[in-house]
Amino acid sequence: MGLNDKSQQTGKNRAFRQSLGHALDGLQALVRTERNFRKHLVVGTLAVLAGIILQLTVNEWLWLTLAIFLVLIAETLNTIVEAVVDLIVGQTYHELAKRAKDVAAGGVLLAAAFAVVVGCLVMLPAILRWF
Ligand SMILES: Nc1ncnc2c1ncn2[C@@H]1O[C@H](COP(=O)(O)OP(=O)(O)OP(=O)(O)O)[C@@H](O)[C@H]1O
Asked: Transmembrane segments in this chain: where (predicted)?
C-alpha cells in the first residue's frame, strides 16, 4: 500500500490511497537516489525564496513555478529512462541504450535552459523594481 509496502505487488492499484502511496514511494526514491534531482530541488527552493523576497507578481510566480516543475519533471523522466534501460541491458554497452539515456539527459538540459531564461526574465525586472 505505498510507502514502506513490502508486498511486492505487481497488479493494478485498487484504491486511490494505494496509488497515492506508490506515487509518494516514487518521489521518495527520486530524492534518496538521484543527486541531480536533489540539486534541482535546492535551486528551485532558493528561487522560491528569492521570489518571496522580491515580491513577484502572480504572473511572474506562474512562469517561475512552471520552470521549476518542468525541470523536476524532466529529471523524473530521465530517471525513468535510466531505470528502464538498465533493466533491459544491465551493464551491457548498447548504442540504443546510449541514445535513450543521452536524449533523456538532453531533455533535462532543455528544461534547465528554459528555467535559466525564465529566471533572468522574471528576477531581473523584480530586482530593478527595488531601485
Ligand atoms: N548500457 C549503456 N550503453 C551505452 N551507453 C551507456 C549505457 N549506460 C550508460 N551509458 C552512457 O553513460 C552515460 C551516463 O549513464 P548513467 O546511467 O550513469 O547516467 P547518470 O550519470 O546517472 O546520468 P544523470 O547524470 O542524468 O543522472 C549515458 O548518458 C550514456 O551516454
From this structure: 41-58, 64-85, 106-128
pLDDT category of residue 35 using cuts at 50, 70 and 90: very high
Is the Cβ atom of 5 under 6 angstroms away from ligand 1? no
**Hey, whose CA ends up nearest to atom 7 of ligand 1?**
98
Where are the domains positioned within the chain?
A: 1-33, 35-128
Query: In angstroms, what is the span from residue 22 Cα to ligand 1's centroid?
Result: 26
The CB of 112 under 6 Å from ligand 1? The reply is no
Listed in sequence order, the DSSP H helices in 1-131 are 16-33, 35-53, 58-89, 95-128
Question: What pLDDT, in 10s, does the model give residues 1-15?
Answer: 455 555 777 787 877
Each residue's pLDDT tens digit, 81-95: 999 999 999 999 999
Topology adopted by domain 35-128: Helix Hairpins (1.10.287)
